[in-house]
Structures are given as structure tokens and as C-alpha cells.
Amino acid sequence: MRPADVLRFAAGSATGSPLRTFLMVLAMSIGVAAVVVLTALGDGARRYVVNEFSSLGSNLVIVLPGRSETGGFNPANAITGTTRDLTVEDAAAVARAPSVLRTAPLTIGTSEATYGGKLMDVTIVGTTADYLAIRRMEVAQGRFLPAANLGQSMSVAVLGAKIRDELFGAEPALGRMFRVGDRRYRVIGVMAASGQGLGMNADEVVVLPVEAAQAMFNTNTLFRIMVEAKGRESIQRARKETLEILMARHDGEEDVTVITQDAVLATFDRILGVLTYGVAGIAGISLAVAGILVMNVMLVSVTQRTGEIGLMKALGAPGHTIRNAFLTEAALLSATGAIVGYLIGQAGAFALRLALPTLPAYAPGWAVIAALGTALATGLLFGVMPANRAARLDAVQALSKR
Amino acid sequence: MSLIELTGIERVFTLGDSEVHALRALDLSIGTGEYVAIMGPSGSGKSTLLNLLGLLDRPNAGTYRLEGRDVTTLSGEEQAQVRRERIGFVFQSFHLVPRLTAAENITLPMMLAGIVAAERNERAARALADYGLTDRADHRPDQLSGGQRQRVAIARATIMRPAMILADEPTGNLDRATGEDVMELLEGLNAGGVTLIVVTHDPVLGSRARRRVMMEDGRKVEDTGAA
To answer: Which ipTM did the prediction report?
Structure first.
């Protein structure tokens, strides 16, 4: 029997009993559609979280002074353990790396701010103009620190929203002089209220030029260097370049720790990824159920078509021809079910995207391929038993049945 | 050389604890072009004999030579090929595939033999014309009369130009007049050189054959005009 004839014969016997075929295709398509929609939902949630993180500045690479040991004891560090200062110049050098968009040095300390007899403890953040962009923060009034205009603009400050309210109350703060520690600063801007971020409340800080802050705390070293990579994909390269530049500037010694905020994100990514796998697995169970249904329906079909099978044998069909015909039929039914299910699933994912525009509910490629593959495989697998039963039928008994 | 050569055929069925001898020590020789009626009451073993002749069943003992070749030792695959090319079956209940049209039912053996579609359709059209079924080509079995169904079945049995036709009560489900038509059709084929073996319990039908083999309790009890 020619393959094309086997296919036509199988298709004919499938369409010969429309209700049976419809039910089987339905079962298979529900399974596939469930996988597509649920993985679209899971993966959509993952992408949603990743995107939200990105808008918080996820392309961040953070440089800490000193080496944090994570790889166990290293004899090289026991001999040369000196930590060099992390300086403003280091930050400027890193900013010139090809994968780095911008950097901001960070010095942090606490001091007292006074204005008009009011005194409060504040957190001082010493940084440069690029800090605003790196942290995706916004200025509510005035402007942020001027771009590297050393010397003359040393005595300016930008206030967090809460500091402004508590220190100045109803008075306009912009342009006023106030005192931090033993120096006076002019308020050139007020930050928009933003809330918590990276473990410190951005509303309760006073932002000063980094040189001013370093002078205030009498230090040369920085607390952090914030580095923003040019894109998500260049984070790892930016990290490597940052490390190389700093090592070169620090006499070839790796005395800084470079971490990526991406590492945190990767954890979320992983958790939600596993969740998606789990959901896909649960949906996959419905595929297995569909496979068993395929087997059941094919077994009924073999019983119903006993006479036909006997006839085929009498007409000279060897067992393997009959097996192929039934297997092909099972494969055709599951393939049709898989395709219909895929279309239903994609339509469902589309409906999800319409209903929840913020959720990028696209089924991941692996899930679609796995669903289609599982549908076909279960269809074939569960088709084998009925097909073998058909092939082994005794021709005489099969013919005597009506 | 005879077409069919059965020697010492035994066929035993096991039903529960008891053994039923469907055929005992059967010797039978049928020549090419013969017209044989195998007769006997039900349970006499005539259907079992027909199944053996059609290679649908294997004997427990004895040899079956078809055209000089021992076919009892062939594999299932080889037996299927012999059925496909040398044997045509006609059944009492027609055994047409209900979802296929008359033309498609006739092409079925050619499809199994792997003949290309163009030749299949041409040969089927010729067969339909020969059996006066051209205007019924696209009808499904349930749209055909009993006589038409059996004519389709005969067309299907002969489409591969077999050496013999095995007919099991071919008129059993037909009225007298239609049955007469069908028998004339089969006898016409026999006149054309095809060996015709008819199994029946109807003495009238059996008397039409040139040779009659009477069966009883699995034994051949009478054989008129052995070749």
C-alpha cells in the first residue's frame, strides 16, 4: 500500500465517523489549548515582572569597595589584602567603557540639617548629575545637581520630598540657604516623592555634590559606584569591563566587588519560569488524558470495524498495513487536535492580552513545541495498542462478525 | 497439475476442554477452471475448508499446495500476497466497506497491491461497466440493492484477476431472481477460465456445479467427478 493511499484511507475512516472524530479532536485540542494559554499566562507574568524591574533601573551594575569572598579561601588574597580607595576618578573611568551608558559615584553618610531653628537627622547622598537618570528618579521643583561643574557649585543641595516638607513646611524651599553639618547649602531642587528603593527611602535624603559629601565626611573613598549598562543584554559585558578597568587602575588587583541588580532579577525570572513549567506540566496532564481518550476511541473503532478489518485481510492486507492505517488515523486525529488546540490557545492568549493589556501573555516557543509534540506522541503512543489489536485480529472470526 | 492439492488436512478447534475436529484427514484436488460446490449441513466443516483454501486459516496437519507451491508454510506476509493476487472472496453478507463508494470498494484490492491511482480508476471504471454498475459508481453500499452490492463485491473479487473465486453462500442474502443473476455472473467468470468454488447448503444451488463435494462431520463423504 502506498503511503499516500494509507493517508487517504486513514483520513477517510476518520471522516467516516464525524462525531467520534470531532470528540477526539476536541479532547486533544482542549489539552493543547490549555498548555498554550496557561504557559502564556505564566510566561506573561514572568515578563511583566522582568519589565517592571527594568523600569526601576535593572540595567544596574553596582561596584562595592573591597572584595567579598564568595569562592572560598583564596591564598592570593591572604598575601595581598590591601584595599585601595574607590574614587570619583574610578567612576569617571568606568563611564568610558563601551558597554556602559553612565555612572554615578555614591557617598553616603548621616548628618544634621538645620533651617530656621529646626534641626533634623538626614541621610546625605553625595553623587553626580547622572544619578538622577540611573535611579530613574524625577525632580519635582528646580533641578538636579549640575553636570560636573566643579568648584563653584559645590554648595548646592537637592532635597527629598519629606525633608523639604519637614524642614521648610509651607515656605518655598527653592533658592533658600540651609545648613548641613557646619556648611551652608543652597536648595536648587526638590525630588518628586518616590518611596522606597534599594533599601533606603529616597524621600528622606539630601543630595549633595559628591565632592561636598566627601569633604563633609572627610573621606576619599566612595560607598558605591552605580553603573548603568547600555541594555539588558550588555549587563554582563559592562560588569566585566568595569572590573577590568578598576583592576587596571588598582595596580592589577581585584579589590572591588561588582554585583548586578540583574542577579536579583534572575532569581525572580527563575522562580516564575519554574512556575510556568509547573503550569505547563499540569496542563500537560490533560494531554495525557486526551491520549488515553484517543486510545479508548481507537479501541472502540477497532471493535466497530472488525468486519472491515477482516475484509482487508481477506483482500490481502498484511498485518503491518492494517497497523499503519490505524496508526496513521490516530496520528491524523491527534495532529488535527493539536493544530486546532494551538489555534484556540493562541486565540485565548490574544483574548488575555486584550483583557489585561499590561500582561504580555505570549505562549513561549518551547511550550508550543512541547504541547504539539506531546499531543502527537501521546496520540501515536496510545494508537499503538489499538492498531496492534487490529493487526492481530483473526480474519475468520473478524469476517464472521457483522 | 491441479490448482489445489490438499493432502491429509486436519483442523482441530479447542472449545474449552473439548476438541472439535472441523476437518479430518481431508484429501482434495481441484483443477484449474473447475466449478466445485462444497455442500453439507452446518457444522460439517465446509466453511472451515473454504477458509483454509482462502489462506485465512492454517491446518493443524497436512499440506496445501496452491499452483504447485506449498502455501501452508508461508509467512503471514506471503500468504497475504497470495490472497491479494490469486484469490477472490465473495461473502454471503457482501462485506462492503460502508463509508466507501462502489467504485472505491472495487479499487480497494488494487490500493492494497500498491497500484497507482490512475490505473486503479481506469480498471475500476471498466469493471463497473462490465457489471452494469456505471451509474452506481458513486453510491455507497447502503444506497445499493442487495444484488448490486453483491455485484460490487464480485467486481472487487475479480479486479486482481485471481486464479480462483471462493464464494461463501453468495446468494444467501438475496431473493431468488437476484440470486440467479449473481450465479450467472459467477458462472460466466468460470466459463472464462477462473476456478469457482462455492460453499452452500442449498441443494438447488449446489446442483448447478459440475462437481459437488459433500461434507459431513469434517469428512468428505461424497465427491462427484473428481478431476
So the answer is: 0.90
